[in-house]
Amino acid sequence: xxxxxxxxxxxxxxxxxxxxARVLAGGTDLLxxxxxxxxxxCTLVSLDRLAALRGVAEDSGAGNKGAATGVGPxxxxxxxxxxxxxxxxxxxxxxxxxxRLPVLAQALADLGxxxxxxxxxxxxxxxxxxxxxxTLPPLLALGAEVELASTAGTxxxxxxxxxxxxxxxxxxxxxILTAVRVPVPGVNVRQHFEKVGRRDALAVAVxxxxxxxxxxxxxxxAEARLAWGSVAPTIWRCPEAEAALVGRKxxxxxxxxxxxxxxxxxxxxxxxxxxxxxxxxxxxxxxxRLAMLE
Length: 294
Ligand SMILES: Cc1cc2nc3c(=O)[nH]c(=O)nc-3n(C[C@H](O)[C@H](O)[C@H](O)COP(=O)(O)OP(=O)(O)OC[C@H]3O[C@@H](n4cnc5c(N)ncnc54)[C@H](O)[C@@H]3O)c2cc1C
Description:
The protein has 3 domains: 2-46; 51-183, Uridine Diphospho-n-acetylenolpyruvylglucosamine Reductase, domain 3, CATH 3.30.465; 189-293, CO dehydrogenase flavoprotein, C-terminal domain (Enolase-like, domain 1, 2-Layer Sandwich), CATH 3.30.390. Helix content is 31%, strand content 25%. It has helices at 9-16, 30-36, 88-93, 95-100, 102-109, 114-119, 122-128, 136-141, 159-162, 239-245, 252-265, 276-288, and strands spanning 2-4, 21-24, 43-46, 56-60, 78-83, 145-150, 153-158, 163-165, 168-169, 176-183, 189-196, 207-215, 221-229. The structure holds flavin-adenine dinucleotide. Flavin-adenine dinucleotide is lined by residues 22-30, 32, 47, 84, 111-112, 116, 119-121, 123-125, 127-128, 133-134, 171, 176-177, 202, 204. The site of flavin-adenine dinucleotide has 30 residues, from β2, α2, α6, α7 and β10.
């Protein structure tokens, strides 16, 4: 198996034009897959030496198509641009991520183990497009957009359009994910992530929930964005539950009513990790935790 280490985007796209070329980021998904189904004819193209795909930067929100979260209409909202080749550990340690996007930081802290967080990247997590991928629910709730590049140029897509199903992302052949653009929520937005797995450490999500709740006048919900992992082929939202919370305080009564809507709408599957009934129950129960955000 051949491994190439391009140093800039020109070299990268040349390498990706090779027959059987596959992007290699941290390898924590891809190498596991190749181990179970070896393909010695493929060429792995490593992103490791590409500075253009690393780093976290603050940017104006100009041109962002993703939904604004907690920023008044007409306000130019700030965006954090997260390089696709940033490792989970780098993002988790970054002061801007911790301060502005605690919902993402909470998910990163729960992702895998220290070695996995040191090797695995944000881009790899999104391109694997697993409904159990821990960064997906927070980024979807935040209204993130992905930046994609190929020899044909660059384009942006809302994350919701990028995630097509398990293992399926809207990448064209020889196209790469370069960065994720995340609108920074306003100060009145409460953020929360929680994952339920079969054990405390190194657990794949059985159900997870990322929540962004903007509180308005009198502490009542002005907007709620809720995104569940592991309950559908891709990250799942429940517009009925989001709408049911608007205009109400985050009381247990309001949350229990919204949770009932979640349980009525969600259609999870049973698999080796949990039954559909358990997932449905937990998907509703996770909402009750938002009472502590009041
Ligand atoms: C023991 C173990 C525990 C784990 N625990 C968790 C967990 O708790 N939560 C969780 O979410 N995941 C978990 N994972 C899965 C994995 O670690 C993550 O999905 C990780 O983020 C993958 O990133 P990577 O850089 O290693 O991707 P890679 O394995 O390098 O790549 C994954 C896929 O994405 C493609 N790709 C990668 N980057 C790009 C890019 N920039 N542009 C285009 N295509 C790209 C690759 O071609 C490949 O198809 C675990 C894995 C292991 C082995």
